[in-house]
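User: Quick sanity check before I run a bigger batch. Here is a single chain. Can you write out its predicted 3D structure?
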Amino acid sequence: RRARCNGPLLAGFAVFCAEGVAGRGELRTLVEAAGGCWLPKQPPSGAGLPEKVLQLGVHFDAELLREAACTQVLRYDMYRL
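Assistant: Done. Predicted structure follows.
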């Protein structure tokens, strides 16, 4: 229900996933299905980045997205590295 009301969970987000994160392929599928943009390379810091960038394995544990796929809630505070 929440997804129908709010639209895709990751609409407007760009997501990078570090090489060492388990299940990168599955996470890419999840990100794209949730309306996000998958970044194949780590974005440089500074200007020109989308406003909402999630860097899994860098700033957040990948479990953030796995949980959000079920709950439709991004709990940043619980999964910040």
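The two ends are 30 Å apart (CA to CA).

User: Great, the batch can go ahead then.
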